[in-house]
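Here is a typical protein record:
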Amino acid sequence: MRKRNFLPVLLALLVVSVFGQNRRVPSIDDLLNVKSAGGAQISPDGKWVAYTITEADFKQDAFVTHIWIAEVETGRRFQLTRGDKSSGNPQWAPDSSWLAFSSSRVGDKNQLFAIRPDGGEAMQLTKADNGVNNYEWSKDGKYIAFTSSDADAKAAKARKDHLGDFEVVRREYNFPQIWTINVAEALESPGPGTQRTKDRDFSVGAFSWSPDGARIAFSATLNPDLIQGHTSDIYVLQLSDNSVKKIVSQPGPDNNPRWSPDGAQIVFSSAMGNPKFFHANSRLAVVPADGGQPRSITDAFDENPGLIDWRTDGIYFSGLQKTAGHLFRVNASNGQISRLTKPDALIAGGFSLTTDARRVAFFSPSPTTLNEIYTADLPAFTLRPLTSMTEQVRDFKLGTREVISWQSQDGATIEGVLIKPADFDASRKYPLLCIIHGGPTGIDRPTLLDSRYYPSDIWVGRGALVLKVNYRGSAGYGEKFRQLNYRNLGVGDAWDVLSGVDHLIRKGWVDPARVGCMGWSQGGYISAFLTTSSTKFAAISVGAGISNWATYYYNTDITPFTIQYLGDDPADDEEIYRKTSPMSFIKAAKTPTLIQHGEFDKRVPIPNAYELRQGLEDRGVAVEMIVYKGFGHGITKPRAMRAVMEHNLLWFNHYLFGDKKPDFSRPALPARDDEKKAEQ
């Protein structure tokens, strides 16, 4: 009997469900409480798919992740792990008999556990002093290798007790090393494992077992500091005597090695010596397992290939094609690339293959669905859905998502995602809110649902349009597009946002007096640039954004990023730092601006926020700055995320919809339990 492709039927039903009548506009808490699926891992025999579901737990103020299992043939699914602590990173034993995962459920550090796919108690496998980072089963399932720091906790405590707490900047690191455990012994009694690498000349990153289990290939940088990313090279560890040999040494990062099925070669991700690797395409390269000259095999692929694994019929990788995401296979001998997934507009990722590469599991969202977990048989690619996460939003009134394009100031074609009310009327003029992604090599895609930072569907439900701009530098559009903002950051990016706004105004859909703009990280920087260089917006929100590239360069934890995009440091090229810094144009600023920043942000240090705030205040521009205590570059807890979304909602509701101006220092709060009782 012919298998049916369930995806069109499923999507048709969901269109009716998501955009049907008598729905309600979601609240901020509704959005935060939507559970998300990901991390699909298919068992080597193709019978099971493990995946994760993450949800907000406001009681303990955490986003908690647990592992679920789906039986492929029947579609039966059930929750495998439970509790207050997250469980994640599931990986199958080669014979599909055990599923390993990492969790801090015992103690305060991540350890490895194993559980049978049909349920039962999870068995602890490791007691690593400094916890477990990454791990992988050996091909015969007898061992697991993992990375962990070899830091001496006792020595650190003794120093602190005698001298107090201090850090010597860029001199003190915890070096991840490779350890192994015997699985049978660990199931009887968990232990620390056997340390295999001890050399302080490198910091271990990704790794993989050879087919015969005698060697482990790994990538490593000079030390764990982010500025050392360009020093990543490929090594091979011989387990018989723990000797290490470097087999790839070239400029730029080389990482994520995977073995050929016969153990003779290794494929890895590589910059192939290109020093401008932040905005250039990476490659997949092949090298003999004993070392030699690396050979690039994906020069014909104009994007960054995400290496998955090497199977007998080729090397599998994932990649973007504009806003779509697909699975590819490349022939290691001749570099011939085949796309294995369809249709063209498919947005898929997180691919996991069976041993024979005949079946794949992955996640995929769409304009009308949340992330759902699917399997498909290859090469036919007949989809089989395993989850129904979109049912969570069936009662919400949500906007429609579509990709649009326009010409920027210099003629470049720019795409963006336009979110419109379900009852959109082309004869009306709507308020417009622009949301700008980070990166700059991020990407916005036409998918449900925006449930962090910026509550798009609440604004759309009130009668607004939302435009998410894939400005120059975004991923998915090829290397030349990513490099259009080289030495043109902010300037060219602003062209792309402003031309997108003008495009919608010309169509007659937007009220030009009611346009707002917001973004986080690189999106925050572009928003800051617009707030000081344009008067097109009624209000702007700057989230963790750069205001002065010189201030940023001297304070950030990733200084090479600045050099690669601007071409030099501030002392040697003052003009490029002036041209691209929002503070250079502060005298022209007029737009009311909300500034949001994490207290301990190392990526975009908080002096950038204070500098912009003071500059705007000095010019008499309406400005509010909110510091989220205890957070770094991202906001990672539900209560603070609720605050971020609420602050943005109130800010733009005032300036675009005429609501009362918010007093962020005195927010409206729900009634306490004692107040509720007093009212009864």
Summary: The chain has a mean pLDDT of 94. The CA atoms of residues 322 and 476 lie 4 Å apart.
